Amino acid sequence: MADKSMIRSLNRKGSRSNRKPPVATRLPAPLDKSACERCGATYVRGTWRATRKLALRPGESVRFTVCPACKQVERGESRGRLILRGKYVGEAREAIERRIANVARRAAATQPERKLVSSEFRDGTLEVRTTSQKLAHRIARELCKAFGGKAAYAWSDDGALDVVWTRAATR
Ligand SMILES: [Zn+2]
Fold first, then answer.
1. Averaged in consecutive runs of 10 residues, what is the pLDDT profile of the chain (171 residues)?
2. Which helix (H) or strand (E) holds 96?
């Protein structure tokens, strides 16, 4: 009988996307009552939470580690990508970046696995990458709400999201 894990790994290698599966699925689970030394997220009963509160019993201490999202950020590994185009992006870049930072901060306050990986402005185009496709989706929705423009979404087979947001000049 064929080895299923071998087939899976072959499929993965042969896939056209070079994005890796989410880090969380490849790492051994952290110990209960761990805390991320970078973002302060805590791991309790199988879930990472943004809260910094850990209920410790007397004599028990926090185990410090780095959460999967912070590891993703460190490796520059993204599951969501936004390309912001159009003359307006250059004109209102600061306001746009502020809005994105705001959305990301609010998302991370409840869901520590949603973080910004990078933001780069080049030749009039802003490219923003996120650890989760959900955060990229939320940012695009917020940009449309705040600034208008149009967003086009493209999900790849492995669930990663590419968004192109376009808005022409103010006048
Ligand atoms: Zn973290």
1. 43 42 61 90 90 82 92 95 96 96 93 95 96 97 96 95 92 56
2. helix 93-110
Contact 112, 36 (CB under 8 A): yes
pLDDT of residue 153: 98
CB 151 within 8 A of CB 140: yes
**Longest pairwise C-alpha distance within the chain:** 66
CA of 101 relative to ligand 1 center, distance in Å:
17
State pTM to two decimals: 0.78
Strand extents, DSSP E, the chain:
34-36, 42-44, 47-49, 63-65, 80-85, 116-122, 125-130, 150-155, 161-166
Residue ranges covered by each domain of the chain: 4-68, 74-166
CATH class of 74-166: alpha beta
Cα-to-centroid distance, 112 and ligand 1 (Å): 7
Q: How far is the CA of 69 from the centre of ligand 1 (A)?
A: 6
Does residue 153 contact residue 73 with C-beta atoms inside 8 Å?
no
